[in-house]
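Title: Prediction job returns without error message
Component: structure pipeline
Severity: low
Priority: P3
Assignee: unassigned

Description:
Job completed but the reporter wants confirmation the result is attached to the right record. Sequence as submitted:
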Amino acid sequence: MGLRIYSIAAMVALTSSNAIATSTSFDDIQITNNMSECSEISLINTISEKSSFFGLFNFKLKPSLANCGCKSAGVDYEVYIENPSKFLLQSGTFNLLGSKERHIVLTSEKSIINNRKILVDFYCSPPN
C-alpha cells in the first residue's frame, strides 16, 4: 500500500473563465494507493471551480490493474477530511484502461475543506 503526502504550494490558472485555480488554506492532501503493486498515483494540481474543488491526478499503470488482483478496470475512490474524525466528502468510480491524467472531484462544497487535511483513498472496484 503506497502513501504519499503533497503540500499545496502554488496553483496554476486555467484558461477557462469559469475555472480559476486558487490557493487553499488546507495543509496537505494525503493519497492512499491501495493498488500500488500495479499503479502509481500522483497529484499534479488542484482546481477550484465555482463551489467545487478538484484534484488533477496522474495514473501510471504497470502494466495493468489485473497485476494487483483487480477483477475489472474500475477504480473506486473516497475523499475524506479529518474533522477531527474522518468525514466522507465524495466517492466515485471510474474506468482506468491505461495510464492517464484524470480530474477527480474532491468536494462539491469547497468551503467544507477549509484548513483541514484531505484524505484520498484509491482501490479496485469490485467486479460487476
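Comment from assignee: result matches the submitted record. The first strand starts at residue 2 and ends at 7.
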